[in-house]
User: Which sequence fits this backbone?
């Protein structure tokens, strides 16, 4: 009777003495502690457990915007940005597309005086009149800080002067900012600027002092057509959250991966 | 070992910087909820921003004293326009300032009422004029009452 004999597992004497065993145990424990420690550094428990019930989001309806610029005026006065300085936390852009496919865009004085003429500002003191019959498409786009979920401006700050708050708003610490301007360069949307009197970086913060008192941001309050709205995306009953969830909305420059939290209804492809 | 002396200088320098830092940097500066990448900041700054002064007080604030004007405006075409858009921010009115600065300029009206043929915008639905042809140089409020109807009085 020939039976195939499977080779039995090789038994080898592994010389484990007490000394080696103790050294191996110490090494193993050290490795485990190291892995656990690194996990704690890169993913602290606070981050893992971060579930704020409040996340401010903004909604802009470009169709409703009439280019009056009351938002820009209110923003400048509310947030103490020198009115005649050519910087602003928010502005309104005008886009005019002609029948030939040419796109003209301007924002005269950030629209702090509104759009009171049909002439397009081309820069360097030049203007262009576009006759009514040549206009194919024309609309206004209000712009403000996107309060990105992954803000690149915060990542580059070397001193921890700008940060994302638990409610999603990105703030600038005026006492801590050294004015290096790195964040101004890092913002893909050009929302940051150098404050002419405080000499620090500045940007829209959804009127943080107002929204924390239950008031609307100054631009939202002064908008006569309801083109600007603010809401809490964590609240399923919030009207703004409902619109973002149930309608087609777009964000600016999604290719940058900053995850903006300002949503637009009717964002044209011409908008830069 | 005299060769180690420069090392002591470097260590002393580092110690001085660390000690100075512990005095200079406030206790609430550090990594907060959002982690090191987004949440490395001075916590008391949040309170500083919350205490920023509110300037635009809103229609409800105006209404507490100027209820009659508010009623008049509520039935007008301009009901969607906030008082402070034309009358200026209230701050702590009437204590400070005693009187608001009213913008009566033609340019204020033209913000909305310059006729612009922008079909993709609600602007094209607002009654507008050509400012170069319609009584140029004159204040609109000479003929039009902004709180009431749109027709000249």
Assistant:
């Amino acid at each position: 009777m020939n039976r195939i004999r499977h080779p039995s597992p090789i038994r080898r004497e592994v010389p484990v003495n007490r000394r080696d065993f103790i050294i191996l145990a110490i090494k193993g424990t050290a490795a485990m502690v190291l892995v656990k420690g690194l996990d704690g550094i890169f993913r602290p428990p606070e981050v893992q457990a971060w579930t704020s019930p409040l996340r401010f989001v903004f909604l802009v309806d470009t169709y409703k915007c009439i280019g009056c610029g009351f938002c820009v005026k209110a923003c400048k006065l509310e947030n103490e940005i020198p009115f005649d300085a050519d910087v602003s936390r928010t502005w309104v852009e005008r886009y005019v597309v002609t029948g030939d496919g040419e796109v003209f865009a301007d924002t005269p004085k950030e629209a702090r005086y509104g759009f009171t003429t049909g002439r397009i500002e081309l820069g360097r003191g030049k203007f262009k009149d576009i006759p009514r019959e040549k206009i194919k498409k024309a609309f206004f786009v209000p712009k403000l800080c996107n309060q990105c979920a992954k803000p690149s401006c915060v990542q580059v700050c070397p001193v921890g002067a700008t940060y994302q708050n638990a409610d999603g708003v990105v703030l600038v610490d005026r006492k801590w900012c050294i004015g290096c301007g790195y964040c101004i360069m890092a913002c893909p949307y050009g929302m940051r600027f150098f404050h002419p009197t405080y000499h620090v970086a500045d940007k829209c913060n959804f009127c943080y002092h107002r929204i924390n008192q239950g008031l609307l941001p100054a631009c939202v309050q002064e908008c006569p057509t309801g083109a600007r709205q603010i809401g809490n995306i964590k609240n399923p009953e919030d009207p703004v959250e409902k619109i973002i969830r149930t309608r087609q909305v777009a964000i600016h420059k999604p290719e940058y991966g900053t995850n903006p939290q300002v949503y637009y209804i009717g964002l044209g492809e011409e908008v830069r | 070992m005299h060769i180690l002396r420069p090392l002591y200088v470097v260590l002393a320098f580092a110690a001085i910087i660390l000690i100075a830092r512990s005095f200079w940097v406030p206790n609430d500066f550090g990594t907060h909820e959002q982690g090191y990448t987004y949440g490395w900041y001075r916590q008391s700054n949040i309170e500083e921003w919350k205490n920023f002064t509110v300037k635009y007080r809103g229609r409800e604030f105006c209404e507490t004293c100027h209820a009659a004007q508010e009623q008049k405006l509520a039935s007008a075409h301009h009901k969607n326009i906030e008082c402070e858009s034309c009358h200026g921010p209230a701050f702590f009115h009437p204590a400070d300032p005693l009187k608001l600065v009213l913008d009566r300029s033609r340019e204020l009206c033209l913000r909305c009422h310059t006729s612009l043929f922008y079909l993709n915008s609600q602007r094209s639905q607002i009654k507008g004029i050509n400012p170069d042809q319609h009584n140029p140089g004159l204040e609109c409020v000479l003929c039009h009452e902004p709180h009431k109807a749109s027709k000249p009085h």
Summary: Residues 5-24 of chain B form the longest helix (20 residues). The first strand of chain B starts at residue 29 and ends at 31. Chain B touches chain A through 47 residues (CB under 8 Å).
